[in-house]
């Protein structure tokens, strides 16, 4: 809920399991933190919860100040369940040093995991978005929350996910999967990819672009595509004037972007802007604009029932013919066939 002039607040509960894989928590949450700083329309209100007030992380660092699992969740909230490791690195030790191995109680940790599973089963209701990172999907599966959903997890745990969620549509070779209110990722760095996708959906693509650039993450990957996301193609440079131009295009892909208009944003000449694009972005200005428009068009094709003429218009193309010409140059599958394929998943 939000009031006029105030950001829309999304409560985010990060469930911290025993033996927490630190990057599964730090990576996605850092994306949300940066998104809060990069825009003012949406605020992600982050809380850390779990069955224990303190746990040891995968790298031996103690995580403290963890709040108890809440008895109820607010409407439209997010719950992030991070992954865990079999045996964490003991505090103060070096990787692979058996002499400094810190014993931990497997039975105690298993009891904490059972508490998380019970809490998820009792608390997650329609309206709450559940996001899992790595082996967090197994806890969600044990709670019965992935049955019938398309989902994924770390490739080494896919057989476990199939066993624990027999009616789920478990996908392999996927970085992350979004199916309604269930969002699952393969783990570790893919939690960052998933969260950038969430930020783009909730706060807009410019916010996700800004967060990724600030974190020097220049490869934002789509869940079902290991290729570079079109929204971040050509952004692995550090030229601030070009980033201003790309931010403007990303915010309004359908606008009539002439080289002259974009050059004024970069405070340079059209000829120099064209040179800079080819040097730093690796493509022409026109090609970059068209690729961004096609990225928007792909979302309209797979996420709406608009006919191709309306898709072309909303994506900024002068005609359906021009749209199809550019589309066919960048995609192997025609737009109508891509729409049909996406609905069969």
UniProtKB/TrEMBL annotation:
InterPro entries noted in UniProt: Class_I_gatase-like (IPR029062), DJ-1/PfpI (IPR002818), Homeodomain-like_sf (IPR009057), HTH_AraC (IPR018060), INH-QAR (IPR052158)
GO molecular function: DNA-binding transcription factor activity; sequence-specific DNA binding
Superkingdom classification of source: Bacteria
HTH araC/xylS-type domain ranges (all copies): 243-341
SMART domains: HTH_ARAC
Keywords of this entry: Transcription, Transcription regulation
Pfam families tied to this protein: DJ-1_PfpI, HTH_18
Keyword Transcription in record: yes
UniProt protein name: Helix-turn-helix domain-containing protein
């Amino acid at each position: 809920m939000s009031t006029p002039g105030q950001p829309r607040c999304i409560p985010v509960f990060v469930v911290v399991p025993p033996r927490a894989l630190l990057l599964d928590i730090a990576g996605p949450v850092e994306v949300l933190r940066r998104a809060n700083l990069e825009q003012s329309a949406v605020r992600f209100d982050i809380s850390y919860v779990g069955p224990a007030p303190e746990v040891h992380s995968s790298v031996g660092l103690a995580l403290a100040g963890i709040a108890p699992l809440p008895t109820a969740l607010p409407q439209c909230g997010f719950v992030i369940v991070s992954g865990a490791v079999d045996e964490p690195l003991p505090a103060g030790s070096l990787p692979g040093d058996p002499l400094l191995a810190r014993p931990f109680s497997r039975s105690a940790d298993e009891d904490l995991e059972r508490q998380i599973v019970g809490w998820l089963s009792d608390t997650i209701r329609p309206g709450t978005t559940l996001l899992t990172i790595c082996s967090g999907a197994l806890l969600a599966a044990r709670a019965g929350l992935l049955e019938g959903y398309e989902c994924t997890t770390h490739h080494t745990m896919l057989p476990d996910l199939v066993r624990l969620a027999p009616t789920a549509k478990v996908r392999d070779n996927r970085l992350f999967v979004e199916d309604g209110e269930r969002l699952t990722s393969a783990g570790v760095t893919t939690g960052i990819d998933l969260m950038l996708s969430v930020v783009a959906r909730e706060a807009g693509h410019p916010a996700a672009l800004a967060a990724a650039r600030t974190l020097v993450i220049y490869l934002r990957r789509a869940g079902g595509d290991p290729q570079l996301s079109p929204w971040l193609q050509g952004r692995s440079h550090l030229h601030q004037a070009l980033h201003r131009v790309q931010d403007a295009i990303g915010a309004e892909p359908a606008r009539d972007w002439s080289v002259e208009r974009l050059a004024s944003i970069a405070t340079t000449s059209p000829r120099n802007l064209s040179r800079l694009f080819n040097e730093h972005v690796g493509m022409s200005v026109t090609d970059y604009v068209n690729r961004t428009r096609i990225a928007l068009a792909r979302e309209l094709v797979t996420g709406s029932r608009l006919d191709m003429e309306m898709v072309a218009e909303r994506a900024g193309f002068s005609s359906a013919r021009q749209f199809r010409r550019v589309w066919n140059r960048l995609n192997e599958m025609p737009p109508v066939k891509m729409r049909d394929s996406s609905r069969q998943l």
